[in-house]
Design a protein that fits this description.
By secondary structure, the chain is an alpha+beta fold. Helices cover about 45% and strands about 20% of the residues.
Length: about 150
Amino acid sequence: MNPAKPALHALCDAFIEQRIAAARTAMQAAQESSSSETKSSAGDKYETGREMANAERDRNAAHMQQAQQLQAELARISPDAPCDTVRPGALVSTSMGTFYLGISAGKLEGMDVFGVSPAAPVAVALKGLRAGEEALFNGKTVRVLAVE
């Protein structure tokens, strides 16, 4: 028996929340590092350290923005909607494994289900298929066993 789609959706959301929190913490640490740099007799060392901290903050801001975009994509998916074809929000059991088409989150914690983006190659190969149908993926035939 596959886990309920709302539970998988919640795990994907928690994955995103962790990424946002990690990016926020790293941004704050970089900001504090930049602010704590003091002028020294080393001259350019002050400016270099400050620029490195600012670059780190900017990198983490980009990571946070990407995570927020993932969150918006996931919010557009209704986990309660029934699916009879492979599409975003579907829980798909295949001969290769089980996938929840929401976001790319890897193996979902405590589950034998992989969170994959609808744009992932495996999802693209299976798109629109129903239970019992097959597709070719990486030179192998993949059979769709069930779609929920």
